[in-house]
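[retry 2/3] Snare-like protein: previous attempt timed out, resubmitting with same input.
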Amino acid sequence: MKIYGLTILHTPLSQPSMPLVTMMDLSSFSFYQHPSISEFMSFFGRMLAERTPQGGRESVQEGSYTAHVYNWGGTEQVVGVLIADHKYPVCPAFLLLTKALDDFMAKVLTSSYAMPSAISFPEVQTYVQKYQDPCQADAIMHVQQELNKMKIVLHKTTESVLEHGERINDLVDRLNVLSTQTKVFYRTTKEQNSCCVLM
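[retry 2/3] Snare-like protein: success.
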């Protein structure tokens, strides 16, 4: 089980999302893959943050990753995205997101909910390191009752999140925010994964 990244984003209505704080742990990948993987995960997280409804919680699988997204809702317009492997359990992922967003809201945002110009939230690194072991989520299990009342939508594929007729391959190809190297990396891993079928 592995957490690859945790990002907290600001998602103003009708505007692109903006990462506020992020922490990636790409130590399980080759050093030379880090830039492409980091760029793709950032793109994937931003896309899902912008498409998750306010107050919504969703888990979306893409390739060998699962992104867990929690849109805080309200006037803050803050979304947490946790990207992990498929083995990382859903419940601890959302407990971690809830804890991270609670702490972020309490420590970073003012009572007026104005987004500060400079954000310091070093706790994001602690969360990614500490919760690599999902059993550590026991420390925040008191949130479990609230979480059980919420609806978590599990999408089997990224395509189920995309708008009618949209495809992830088309988005990757036409977006200017992704480098050519990342686009090639995405297509190569997609082709490599398509040859293997588990029975």
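[retry 2/3] Snare-like protein: The two ends are 21 Å apart (CA to CA).
[retry 2/3] clearing retry counter.
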